[in-house]
From TrEMBL:
A Pfam family recorded for this sequence: Glyco_hydro_39
Gene Ontology biological process terms, A to Z: carbohydrate metabolic process
Molecular function (Gene Ontology), one example: xylan 1,4-beta-xylosidase activity
EC number assigned by the record: 3.2.1.37
Signal peptide: 1-20
Lineage of the species this protein comes from: Bacteria, Pseudomonadati, Pseudomonadota, Alphaproteobacteria, Caulobacterales
Domain Glycosyl hydrolases family 39 N-terminal catalytic: 35-530
Catalytic site positions: 212
Protein name per the record: Beta-xylosidase
Record's keyword annotation contains NADP: no
InterPro entries, sorted: GH, GH39_cat, Glyco_hydro_39, Glycosyl_Hydrolase_39
Species: Asticcacaulis biprosthecium C19
Keyword terms of this UniProt record: Glycosidase, Hydrolase, Signal
Family assignment from sequence similarity: Belongs to the glycosyl hydrolase 39 family.
Length: 563
């Protein structure tokens, strides 16, 4: 089956060839952009919401390319990066497949007694922790021996790219036959984790039940049955670790009426497990996705749907007095919904469009959180890697065959931002309301976000983004930085664009080989890395102000460090 999956992916990639990612129109004159940064005026804290990642397939994390990528994620901010995965309690032998994984944590003997086996799931969590990554522990899905699925329902699905999405809804989506056994499973798992990793460590994790229970292909029960599932799981976690950080429900989108009912239940409902009023809730979570299309021979992104879901989700939480100050995690936060689905509308993934979209969208997410005055803790990128698949196959991932894609370099730039946002403006940055109303379809979005780091440097992020993945002129940026001390500043620039931090263009230039040799592999690895460029001359400071000039290609991202 694995060979068939590889062949399917390869044929799909050939049917929708990956587009070139040099989006610079050399014939067009540069577009002048004026930016200002006031280093002396702090405007808001900037929480590191970017440090959350996840994937459907948990077992890939323990494989060769998965381990390598997990190390790269951990290096972003060791001990503060979190990873969420489906299928940590699913029944099976641990062999990964598209949108599938398993650990065989729970089976039953002939008499129906529980048999717990933590070997596989321990290996997954061990892999995270050894690389500086902590679990955002999703409790799911229903083990086969517990499933209430109708007789004859297959337990593991056989979905693959190109199949109807609802075919994933097999026996694992059904409620447990016995909620007491379900709670005991969660209790035993949490108790084991505390014994294996230590109480202090496990208390830093996130515990969350299920995935997108408002969708029929993830939850076959009713909303009330999910509340019951959730209550018993949270009771099991808290019985083993009373201080555990628990929350949810990680609904699709802002959750609609399902989310409204959940919020009401955890505040005023009768707890199915304890009989008390309400359910412990340390954080709230929902999902947000964009909707790219393939039109007129190119990809057109749509940030509108993603930002509207976030706007609505923030509003739902902020409207509940008992919950409005609780941390929020956007538990899946992506340009579209299916990481394992290639296709022409998803041809943005390999190159710089994904990188620039990420920079532009996260800037708006921070802005939306400030507008709603909510406590935004995280925005989780649902992308990892697919082991042993064709090179640059078009999946939403952070690396291909062990080689980082440009998008992960945007997160490396995020990791250099400081905790305090300072005043910054750009005359070419599209206002948030305009982005949410009509996207970025006219003039390009050349935006800026500036921070002061803990060691008192300035980190200034600049992006040049457009929804339409077509060639355009470079942005010629004139940046005025005020509030500086001394007579000069050292400037270091990091870049992600067609020629910097971009293994995809390097692969295309070598003829797009599907079996790179070791020398080509080394060349791709080098091309994937950003190299800091120290400006040859320090920028002169006059009356506390420095004038900096540089260019940013279309769909490019740049970070300036001033010290």
């Amino acid at each position: 089956m694995h060979r068939l999956l590889c062949l399917t992916a390869a044929l799909t990639a050939l049917a929708f060839p990956a587009m070139a990612q040099d989006r610079t129109d050399d014939a067009a004159p540069p577009v002048p952009v004026t930016m200002t940064v006031d280093a002396g005026r702090t405007v808001a804290p900037l929480p590191p919401i970017w440090r959350f990642f996840g994937a459907d397939e948990p077992n890939y994390a323990t494989m060769k390319d998965g381990r390598k990528l997990m190390s790269h994620l951990g290096e972003l901010r060791p001990g503060q990066v979190y990873f969420r995965a489906h299928n940590l309690l699913s029944t099976g032998d641990g062999t990964p497949a598209f949108k599938w994984g398993s650990t065989n944590a729970y089976t039953e003997d002939a008499q129906g007694n529980p048999v717990y086996n933590w070997t596989v799931v321990d290996h997954i969590i061990d892999t995270y922790l050894a690389r500086g990554v902590k679990p955002y522990l999703q409790i799911g899905f229903t083990p086969q021996a517990m499933s209430s699925a109708p007789e004859g329902t297959p337990y593991q699905h056989t979905w693959r790219p190109g199949f109807a999405y609802d075919l994933i809804a097999t026996g694992w989506v059904w409620p447990p036959k016995d909620y007491e056994k379900w709670e005991e499973l969660v209790y035993q798992w949490t108790k084991h984790n505390v014994e294996r990793y230590g109480r202090d460590e496990v208390a830093t994790w996130y515990f969350q039940v299920w995935n997108e229970p408002n969708l029929k292909f993830y939850w076959a029960g009713t909303p009330e049955e999910f509340y019951r599932l959730h209550d018993h799981a949270i009771a099991g976690v808290r019985r083993a670790l009373p201080e555990a950080r628990v929350g949810g429900p990680d609904v699709a989108g802002s959750g609609g009426a399902f989310m409204d009912g959940f919020l009401k239940h955890v505040v005023t409902g009768t707890n199915y497990a304890t009989g008390e009023t309400g359910t412990p809730t340390d954080f709230l979570s929902f999902h947000a996705k964009g909707a790219p299309k393939f039109t007129d021979g190119h990809v057109r992104m749509s940030m509108i749907e993603q930002l509207k879901a976030i706007d609505t989700g923030f509003g739902k939480v902020a409207a509940v007095p008992e919950l409005k100050t609780r941390p929020i995690v956007i538990g899946e936060n992506d340009p579209e919904g299916c990481a394992a689905c290639p296709g022409p509308q998803n041809a943005y993934r390999n190159g710089t469009l994904y990188a620039s979209y990420t920079a532009a969208s996260y800037a708006r997410i921070w802005e939306l959180a400030g507008r709603h005055k909510v406590n935004l803790d995280g925005a989780l990128t649902w992308a990892f890697t697919f082991e042993d698949q064709p090179w640059f196959a078009g999946y939403r991932q952070l690396a291909t065959n062990g080689i980082d894609l440009p998008v992960i370099n945007t997160f490396r730039l995020f990791s250099q931002l400081g905790p305090d946002q300072v005043a910054a403006t750009s005359n070419a940055q599209v206002p948030l309301n305009d982005v949410m109303a009509s996207g970025i379809r006219g003039p390009a979005d050349v935006g800026v976000l500036a921070t002061r780091t803990k060691d008192n440097r300035l980190a200034i992020l600049v992006w040049h983004y457009h929804d339409d993945d077509i060639a355009g002129p470079v942005a010629a940026v004139a940046l005025s930085v005020s509030g500086l001390k001394g007579k000069s500043v050292k400037v270091t620039q990091w870049r992600v664009d067609g020629d910097h931090g971009n293994a995809f263009t390097a692969w295309q230039k070598m003829g797009s080989p599907q079996s790179p040799d070791q020398n080509q592999y080394a060349e791709l690895e080098t091309a994937s890395k950003m190299t800091p460029q120290i400006w040859p001359e320090a920028a002169r400071v006059t009356n506390g102000t420095a004038e900096l000039n540089f260019t940013v290609p279309r769909q490019g991202v740049s970070l300036l460090i001033l010290e």
